[in-house]
Design goal:
The protein has 94 residues and is mainly β. It contains no helices and eight strands. It has one domain (20-93). The protein has strands at 20-25, 31-33, 43-52, 55-61, 70-75, 81-82, 87-89, 92-93. The strands form two sheets. The chain has a five-stranded antiparallel sheet, with no helix packed on it. Strands 6-7-8 form a three-stranded antiparallel sheet, with no helix packed on it. A hairpin with a 5-residue loop joins strand 1 and strand 2.
């Protein structure tokens, strides 16, 4: 593949939008505001995309503690996790 550069124009670097947790689904069926951020978990599984009024469903847990995980409603966006200076997702560290 050949890279084409237009002199005088900087290529636009699109800022990728990270996964957002909005609501937590508890085991008794209640829904509350999410209190933990995606970066606080070791694993995030996407269960369904857009199942409930524009929200995506996630299951988040730490290694070895899957039974202590949480269900979240939120937004997949670009499917990355924001670590401040790093974005992790799709197996790529930028």
């Amino acid at each position: 593949m050949t890279k084409v550069i237009i002199l005088g124009n900087e290529p636009e670097k699109k800022k990728r939008k990270p996964i957002e947790f909005v609501k937590t689904l508890s085991n008794d069926g209640t829904i509350s505001d999410a209190t933990r951020m995606p970066k606080s978990w070791k694993n995030i599984e996407v269960i369904l995309l857009n199942p409930v009024k524009g929200f995506d469903m996630f299951f988040a847990y730490d290694d070895g503690y899957r039974n202590w995980g949480c269900l979240y409603l939120g937004h997949y966006n670009d499917g990355i996790v924001d670590w401040g200076c790093l974005y992790l997702g799709d197996g790529i560290v930028e």
